[in-house]
Amino acid sequence: MTGTETGWTATASATLEQAVKASFLFKFAPFVEWPPSAFPGSDRSFTICISGEDPFGNVLDDVIRGQKMANRPVRVRRVKLESGMAGCHMLFAGRSADKDYAPFAPITGQPVLTVADRDGGPPGAMIQFVVQSGRVRFQIDDSAARASHLKISSKLLGLAIAVDRK
Description:
Organism: Sphingobium tyrosinilyticum
Protein name: YfiR family protein
InterPro entries: YfiR/HmsC-like
Helix content: 25-40%
Pfam families: DUF4154 (PF13689)
């Protein structure tokens, strides 16, 4: 095998991993119950926000294109911390070189499902992606979700490799 083939394989694997994670982000939503206050208007979109480095590029946009969540259109919004968090229902926090990066701090206690990579992502996410044996899996901090008035379905909890229920 040449170096070019090895590089292509690593790139293809990384691309597949991000596609799986993007799909998971969308698929988590039906298994989470948000309080009515999270959707003040009947025509409001379900918004997935991305902060920090965006590992998905157009993949997440492609996954949600034309989709609905609870009869609401789904949209993706890239945000800057604090200034753009209003209206987020889910926040994926990517990596950041900023040593003071704390993307979940501005939304503590608010009904926003937080997601990050366990390795390299910021701490404190309700759902953390984990890669085990080449497969994308996830672990859930159910107590953090409950503290933010979110109820995660037992079906999703059952699929997690670990659940924190403090």
